[in-house]
Amino acid sequence: MADFRLTYQIILIELMERSAIPLSTARILDFTAQLPFFDYFQAQETLNSLLEAGMIETEASGNTTLYHSTDKAHEAYEMYHSEVPPDIREQIIKSLNDNKLSIQTDNALSCVYHPSYNGGYLCTLRRIENDRIQISLSVHVASIDAAKAVCAN
Q1: At 137, which helix (H) or strand (E)?
Q2: With contact defined as beta carbons under 8 Å apart, do 151 and 63 qualify?
Q3: 132-141 and 121-129 as β-strands: parallel, antiparallel, unpaired?
Q4: Three-state SS for 5?
Q5: CB-count burial class (<10 Å; 0-12, 13-18, 19+) for 32
Q6: Partners of 66 in the β-ladder
Q7: Which residues are within 8 A (CB) of 80 and not within 5 positions of it... i.e. 6 or more apart?
Q8: What are 54-112's pLDDT values in tens digits?
Q9: What pTM does this model have?
């Protein structure tokens, strides 16, 4: 582990690559808290550097930010995955398996809103079950307050 920042990045990318669905900030921080060398600030700094580099993307789900890896992250992972020690890789797999149901519950119902090209906001509600989108429904509303209300409910 010569470059710790690279190792931290690859660990988080592997966590997201192995997860079938986006992970919340809380789930990522819970995982990193289990590692003896990863503290809260290093985890936040690593998430931010991955965002800035275009390796991960976020989506809003109510009050929660969800993270998922991008194609660029997948390419980096293919090149550097050997930087993740085997015991950490096993811990990633175990953590995802142990928390699969609660991670799915986190992601079961999500709503995001974005400004619409013709004014107003487009709210998209998704129901995910067994790693598949069961329904996706979009509603156009006139104001950001209405969009927030739709997503909050």
Answers
A1: strand 132-141
A2: no
A3: antiparallel
A4: helix
A5: buried
A6: 24, 59
A7: 6, 10
A8: 999 888 766 678 888 888 988 888 888 787 788 888 888 777 777 664 555 555 667 77
A9: 0.62
